């Protein structure tokens, strides 16, 4: 994962709604910047869609820039195509740019691993927070409040340090194009699978399922099953390669 204090990686991507190109420099006058990696199809993102819209509303008049990026391969999830993302922005009432990372290079720069994934940068564009929205998950019954992310944003806006105790986000893995998976991808998958597998007396591994092994193979079909039906922690190696 990106270390706290890392300079915000640059980006220049097309907004699926306006058609304009939006760059990191567009937010240079803001005291803070929130970069969100989201998508249309993921149940973890859909679970928090109302809170994403509220963030856009509640911070519209504050000194912070908000931007969402989708890096998913639409060949895996058609809803994550530019048209699908445009529909998402309209239906969910998102009041911030939604950008399409067609080459997936921006996701790699940020070492983004799942949707949703959140990054808050301070006025110097140094990373102050990377972690979860809050403790709510689609199946745990906890209310969606955005507590963790809002606390980080409010601290940055107030000039206070953000707690270094930050819980990683949880969601569906980014749908990488075949052969375009970053170096940290499989490491993150196996690391995130281990606790889930251990609870069930299984062994997390890469490859084809065999007996009691918990399959984290690389096929699109298996990825779909494991990502949509299990809660994969959005864990990345602390020193993920930067591209």
Could you provide a short overview of the structure?
With 243 residues, this protein is α/β, with parallel strands linked by helices. The chain has helices spanning 43-47, 49-58, 82-92, 105-109, 147-158, 185-199, 220-229, and strands at residues 12-15, 21-23, 32-37, 64-70, 98-100, 114-115, 117-121, 127-131, 172-173, 203-205, 213-215. The protein has two domains: 12-158, Glutaredoxin (3-Layer(aba) Sandwich), CATH 3.40.30; 174-229, no CATH class.
What does this structure look like?
The structure is a single chain. By secondary structure, the protein is of the alpha/beta class. The protein has 2 domains: 12-158, Glutaredoxin (3-Layer(aba) Sandwich), CATH 3.40.30; 174-229, no CATH class. It is built from 7 helices and 11 strands. The chain has a 7-stranded mixed sheet with strand order 2-1-5-4-3-7-8, covered by helices on one side. Strands 6-9 form a two-stranded antiparallel ribbon. A hairpin with a 5-residue loop joins β1 and β2. The longest helix is centred in the last third of the chain and has 15 residues, at 185-199.
Name the helix and strand elements from N-terminus to C-terminus, one letter apiece.
Answer: EEEHHEHEHEEEHEHEEH
Strand order of the largest sheet: 2-1-5-4-3-7-8
Task: Please name the CATH architecture of the largest domain.
Answer: 3-Layer(aba) Sandwich
CATH C-level label of the largest domain: Alpha Beta
Beta-strand fraction estimate: 15-25%
Number of helices: 7
Q: How would you characterize the largest beta sheet?
A: 7 strands, mixed
